[in-house]
Write a structure and sequence with these properties.
The structure holds 2 protein chains of 2 kinds. By secondary structure, chain A is mostly helical. Chain A contains 9 helices and no strands. In chain B, helix 2 packs antiparallel against helix 7 and helix 4 packs antiparallel against helix 7. At the A-B interface, helix 7, helix 8 and helix 9 of A face helix 5 and helix 6 of B.
């Protein structure tokens, strides 16, 4: 971690930041991931709108719909972070220039920023378009959104690293992610329903405990296994 | 090795043992007040349908056991990079999928007669559905990677992640869904969410047959698993010998 300066190798944090900045800059140039994700959010919200028709739905069903939108938009764009490295053939260079944990950290940071940005827009659009969805306990909703997005990004980044090495990348991503994201999704949907019903903040405590421990566990196992996924 | 197996006829013994378990599980009478050693107690609300416990629970147990052993062999592969561990891991996962399907189907048939519907997203059904999804994803991943070493490590890593995530379902699902599933061993109060789940109080005979069935199923599983591992090892050897000859 605290490598001496004169060896000529950048420190671990510097490499992680460098990986993050590299992806950040290439994203700013093409804006591929952001535009793809936002279009997907719009598409999914439109499908939900047409499916509901003019009748609307009770708030607890809409709370689930919000996470359907977020889950599918995440599945459409979060795998890119590792898939592009394989497609452009730059994975090997990255392996040589940075330690695996630094690569993972940089990629995770990028996906986190992406997910926070896209989910904020998704929630705003959802409130704007979907009639009848209101949040009575804003504190529960914000904490749920933050924890849910974090958990989604952490798990999706690890699965993205796995599927980047496989043949059928696009279809494999949601297939591998869904069963592992299900405990997270069940907990955030439950917490969002509590927020919509106007429950007290403490009532969602159990869900928050589950979400925080889920993020902690997945983050830990990610750093333990990433070497085996990343190195050829 | 084959001489050793013939010296002790454990396959024959397993056959006799399993036959005995099946006969006893199906034939012993169920009475309200068991007085003789060969009588099972009646479970209120289940009656003869309670006999499924001798077959359904062992299949569910094996689908979890196979998953755990697949994960453990996967970890050993990651540590040693020896493909023989991957064969063991993949063979266990294949059998796990088979027993998982069996547990799901027998459970659904039982549910049709006890709850009136094949599927109602009871927590147990949800859990086994997730386990099916994970097995499915595991084999989808395996079939999508061609290089054997890479396939082995990716599959092992996926099994490890799934093993870490699985325990969360035990905490999440009870918060979201309520259960009517009988609780034979864990919850002796037999009440979830105000509705009483049928209480399964086993007497000594029933418990003995149940444990014997668990042992029989585990024995059959182990036998099938060794067969698969041996076949896969032969295939691997033929493939590597073919490579060497070329």
């Amino acid at each position: 971690m605290s490598a001496p300066v004169h060896t000529g190798r950048p420190s671990w944090i510097r490499s992680a930041l460098a990986v993050f900045l590299k992806d950040w800059n290439s994203e700013l140039r093409t804006r591929y991931a952001v535009s793809a994700l936002l279009m997907f959010v719009l598409t999914t919200i439109a499908i939900v709108l047409f499916a509901l028709g003019t009748e609307g739905a009770p708030p607890h069903a809409l709370a689930g719909m919000l996470w359907v939108v977020i889950f599918f938009s995440g599945m459409s764009g979060l795998a890119r972070i590792f898939v592009t490295e394989e497609e452009r053939g730059t994975a090997m260079t990255l392996q040589l220039t940075a330690p695996p944990s630094a690569v993972y950290t940089g990629k995770l940071l990028f996906n986190l920023v992406l997910v926070y940005a896209v989910n904020t827009v998704a929630v705003l659009l959802f409130f704007f378009f979907i009639q009848g969805f209101e949040v009575r306990t804003v504190s529960i909703f914000l904490v749920t959104l933050f924890l849910g997005s974090t958990g989604l990004a952490v798990m999706a980044t690890l699965i993205a690293a796995i599927i980047a090495k496989a043949n059928t990348k696009g279809t494999l991503f949601p297939v591998l992610s869904f069963p592992l994201l299900l405990p997270l999704l069940l907990a955030v949907i439950k917490a969002t329903q509590l927020a919509a019903e106007g429950a007290f903040f403490a009532e969602a405590g159990g869900e928050f405990q589950i979400l925080i421990s889920y993020i902690g566990a997945v983050l830990t196992v990610s750093y333990l296994v990433f070497d085996y996924v990343w190195k050829d | 090795m084959s001489g050793k197996i013939r010296a002790f006829p454990w396959k024959g013994l397993l056959g006799v043992w399993t036959t005995l378990v099946i006969v006893l599980a199906l034939a012993l009478p169920m009475v309200p007040q068991p007085r003789f050693w060969y009588e099972f107690p009646i479970v209120p609300g289940l009656e003869d349908k309670a006999r499924i416990i001798f077959f359904h629970v062992p299949t569910a147990w094996l689908s979890v056991l196979a998953f755990v052993s697949s994960m453990v062999y996967g970890i050993r592969y990651l540590r040693t990079k020896d493909l023989r561990w991957d064969l063991r891991s993949a063979s266990a996962a294949g059998l796990g999928l088979l027993f998982c399907v069996l547990a799901t189907v027998t459970g659904a048939i039982w549910a049709k007669f006890s709850w009136g519907t094949f599927w109602n997203w009871d927590p147990r059904q949800t859990s086994i559905f997730v386990l099916l999804l994970i097995y499915g994803a595991y084999f989808a991943l395996r079939s999508a990677v061609e290089v054997e070493e890479k396939r082995a490590s990716l599959a092992a890593v996926y099994a490890v992640i799934a093993g870490v995530v699985m325990p969360f379902f035990m905490f999440v699902i009870p918060r979201v869904l309520e259960s009517l599933h009988p609780e034979p061993l864990v919850n002796l109060e037999g009440s979830v969410g105000g509705l009483p789940a049928p209480k399964l109080q086993m007497n000594g005979t029933m418990l003995a047959v149940f444990l014997a069935s668990l042992a029989a199923f585990t024995g059959v599983y182990y036998w099938m698993w060794t067969l698969r591992v041996r076949a896969a090892a032969l295939e691997l050897r033929r493939a590597t010998e073919g490579e060497n000859r070329d």
